[in-house]
Amino acid sequence: MTVIERPAATDIRATLEKQRAAFQASEPYTAEQRCELLDRAIGLLVEHEQDIIDALSADFGHRSPMFSRGSEVLSPLATLKQTKAKLVEWMQPEARHVEQGEAWVQYQPLGVVGIVTAWNVPGNMVFNGLAGALAAGNRVMIKPSEFNPQTSALIARLISSVYAEEEVAVITGGAEVGQAFCSLPFDHLLFTGATSIGKHVLRAAAENLVPVTLELGGKSPVIISRSADFQAAASKIVVGKMLNAGQLCVAPDYVFVPEESMEAFIAIAKAVVAKMFPTLKDNPDYTSVINARHYQRLQGYLTEAREAGVELIELNPAGEDLSQAHNKIVPTLLRNPGSQLQVMQDEIFGPLLPLKPYRDITEVLAFINARPHPLGLYYFGKDAAEEALVLRRTSSGGVTLNGVMSHAGVESLPFGGVGASGMGAYHGIDGFRTFSHARAVFRAGN
Predict the structure, then answer these.
(1) Which keywords does UniProt give here (predicted)?
(2) Which residue in 119, 156, 220, 436 has the most C-beta neighbors within 10 A?
């Protein structure tokens, strides 16, 4: 049985020891065995698509079925299939040049990989992490978020139905279970979540010198250049922000708008939301905030901004009262909020979008560079010199040009943060290498 409900720390450690013993007792998985392990995950997603969508809807209260299908089923399915298709190529020794003798890098499985996932796109994170860890030949232990009790329980049941405990195990439970999990002597730990929690994870892992990949977040800025197709840029930004009600780690967090174009952006935003969501209250495709705590956090941002005199522009096409809707918040633009406000300090993770007017690109770059490095950065424009300046003078985990968030879905690109937005990367070959030991081998000449 793979599912362990609210286990004691000793039980979690016993699972780790069982996996490590199985790893050490066996030859490394062959390419065929790894592909078969990946096939089991593919089968789960194909056979249980509706179950996954329903569980997420139950956890959120209201969650777009279309978004759930795309993010939690189709996206990880594509990742697993591409991983399987490329696996033999990735496993090949990599020759290195030497003057005499022979040298190469041989990628070996690490052993047991721990994966801790966040609540916003849990299926995506579980199966994407699983793809890289299994492709590299590891055993895997997974701790999904307690904020998704229905989804976490479903993932645990599904995993246990196709994997033995010594292959893949799911550990469920609250914060105390998560703390015990992150304190284990894994061979690698992948954590996705808030920067504040990432610091605790790193401290816990340090006790056992466990290498860690941290996928955190931050305030991902958007820059609209005066050279941009303004209509297209504003539309893409608003659509991106509305996905999962802004509850994505790479969601556009705030937007730099040329000062003379502020009214135009607001008008486009109103039109885009009216087309996407003519109603909000009973619209199943308009996702709720995950829970009451995060709902109150977002309402607090609005209250503070309102009291500070910030103009709030609600995007509420039908003029509905959402106070009695299950944790639904009206999408809201905030016109030029001050930097001291919490909405400009914290990662928003909700359908609120601050707009910052600007005159010159240099002031934009200075603003971004005075703050922690974000997970994503987005630039819209046709000015090649200005684009190059933005890429050269800023630092972020990844960049999408003339779009938002798309870089995170390109499997051939590493996905990860820098500085406060994380360390390390995975996805595609970068995930395979993250979960592998690159062993240097040199054969001396005669």
Answers:
(1) NAD, Oxidoreductase
(2) 220
Let me know: does 134 contact 431? Beta carbons within 8 Å: no
304 annotated active-site: no
178 alpha carbon, distance to own chain's centre: 18
Instruction: Kindly provide the b/e burial profile for residues 310-327, where b requires at least 16 CB atoms within 10 angstroms of the residue's own CB.
Output: beeeebbbeeeebeebeb
411 is known as an active-site residue: no
Closest CA to 312 of 334, 292, 285, 341: 334
Contact 421, 217 (CB under 8 A): yes
Pick the CATH number of 221-409 from 3.60.21.10, 3.40.720.10, 3.40.309.10, 3.40.50.10950: 3.40.309.10
pLDDT tens string 27-65: 999 999 999 999 999 999 999 999 999 999 999 998 999
Neighbours of 405 (CB within 10 A): 20
Task: Report the SS3 class of residue 405.
Answer: coil
The residue whose two tokens read 């698509």 is: 49
Taking only the tens place, the pLDDT of each residue in 309-348 is 999 999 999 999 998 888 999 999 999 999 999 999 999 9
pTM over 0.85: yes
